[in-house]
Amino acid sequence: MGFVVALDYKNPYLYPFEEFQRWKQHPAIREILEGGKRVSYGARAINEGGWQSVPKLAFPGGALIGCTAGFVNVPRIKGSHTAMKSGMLAADSIAAAIASGREHDEVGEYQATLNDSWIAKELKLVRNAGPIVGKFGADLYGSTIAAMDMWARTIGINLPFTMKHHTDAEETGKKSGYRPINYPKPDGVISFDRLSSVFLSNTNHEEDQPCHLVLADPEVPIKVNLEYYDAPEQRYCPAGVYEIVGREEGSPRLQINAQNCVHCKTCDIKDPTQNITWVAPEGGGGPNYPNM
Ligand SMILES: Cc1cc2nc3c(=O)[nH]c(=O)nc-3n(C[C@H](O)[C@H](O)[C@H](O)COP(=O)(O)OP(=O)(O)OC[C@H]3O[C@@H](n4cnc5c(N)ncnc54)[C@H](O)[C@@H]3O)c2cc1C
Ligand code: SF4
């Protein structure tokens, strides 16, 4: 089962992992889970930018395909088909370039064939769904407007506008405007704690390596994030990588347990000050989801 939390949430006290645990306690969901066994756990940010966020696709020596380019059909949460098709289009363009003796240049043809493909057509049809839900809410009102926009385009009515996105980071509100949320304690049967869940992601990193979660300014986590946002990285990280320690001694500092990172990239996206950059760790480490 999966639980999606839109990362443009405002309350810095919101705790996506705990929202998931609380949801599992709803009688309708609990009924499904009772008698079952927790076997695995993982987390991943869904690339929700859609067509208007797709960057330039080719550069000398490489091309962006699949989720790297942001080809998820957002309302359907589906991107496997566009990932495969964009890989095929890139491969066709590269094979043709090699066959004609080219090397070290940009395969601009990939961009052109993609713009003419069903990927572009499909993503253009749903391009306003995400921004509409972000603006009007995920309730019946917002969903109805998003559905009307999508269906109008599907039946050929060309609505001549494309809505823009806001960044999830800048949507995060300051703690002064919100109250902490009390989440129920896990019962160990249906709901669980975060660390024992991360254990089930089989995450592993070589220990002797630089931290792959890079802070632009090491003072910001305490001086800004803790002071104004109650350090939301403690909560939005699904793996408990970020911990504020030393509060009791009066000298709080951010501890980064990088070895637990499940590579979801949420910190790179949601940190209100955009102070965290996720870089590829050494040694091919990360989560290992055997059933996926
Ligand atoms: C919760 C969730 C539910 C989804 N449900 C659906 C669904 O039902 N149907 C659907 O069609 N799509 C679904 N999607 C979307 C779909 O999973 C993605 O669009 C698709 O997997 C993208 O494929 P990809 O190959 O581009 O990227 P990925 O599947 O992300 O593959 C990228 C791979 O590269 C590896 N990698 C990253 N960095 C490095 C590095 N430096 N060196 C070596 N390897 C590296 C990663 O470990 C990963 O294995 C879902 C996505 C999420 C997050
Ligand atoms: S450190 Fe960042 S990328 Fe890693 S699990 Fe936490 S939020 Fe995700």
Name the bound molecules.
Answer: flavin-adenine dinucleotide, iron/sulfur cluster
Coarse structural class = mainly alpha
The percent range for helix content is 25-40%
**Number of helices in the DSSP assignment:** 12
Radius of gyration: 21 Å
Question: Helix and strand string, N-terminal first?
Answer: HHEEHHHHHHHEHHEEHE
Extended strand count: 6
What is the rounded distance between the termini? 13 Å
Largest sheet: 2 strands, antiparallel
Mean pLDDT: 94
Strand residues, percent = 5-15%
Query: Shape, please?
Result: globular
> Which strands sit side by side, in order, in the main sheet?
1-2
| Poorly predicted sequence stretches spanning 5 or more consecutive residues | none
What does this structure look like?
- This protein is mainly α and 292 residues long.
- 36% of the residues lie in helices and 6% in strands.
- The protein is built from 12 helices and 6 strands.
- The chain has helices at residues 16-24, 27-33, 80-99, 108-115, 118-125, 129-136, 140-154, 168-171, 194-199, 220-229, 233-236, 266-270, and strands at residues 58-59, 62-63, 213-215, 242-245, 253-256, 276-278.
- It has a two-stranded antiparallel ribbon. A two-stranded antiparallel ribbon has the order 3-6. A two-stranded antiparallel ribbon has the order 4-5.
- A hairpin with a 7-residue loop joins strand 4 and strand 5 (253-256).
- The structure holds flavin-adenine dinucleotide and iron/sulfur cluster (SF4).
- Iron/sulfur cluster binds next to helix 12.
- Flavin-adenine dinucleotide is lined by residues 2, 44, 46, 66-68, 72, 77-81, 83, 280.
